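Changelog note: in this version the structure field was regenerated for every chain. One regenerated record is shown below for reference.
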Amino acid sequence: MTTRTSSKTVTFARPFLLKGIDRTLPAGDYRVVTDEELIEELSFPVYRRVATMIFVPAASGHASSVEM
């Protein structure tokens, strides 16, 4: 199965909450990655999203640590 991945930076102007993360995340730039797979049974190319991930700073506070 053919998979494609795209990445973009999303900017939040204010602190925000995400379901599954038990703390408020600070305003700023966040990397969002989307994985899509090709649906091969069709006569034209169509991709279906299979995963979307946002990278946020880890709760530990280390500059190089992230949660996904």
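Spot check on this record: The radius of gyration is 16 Å. The chain is about 0% helix and 50% strand.
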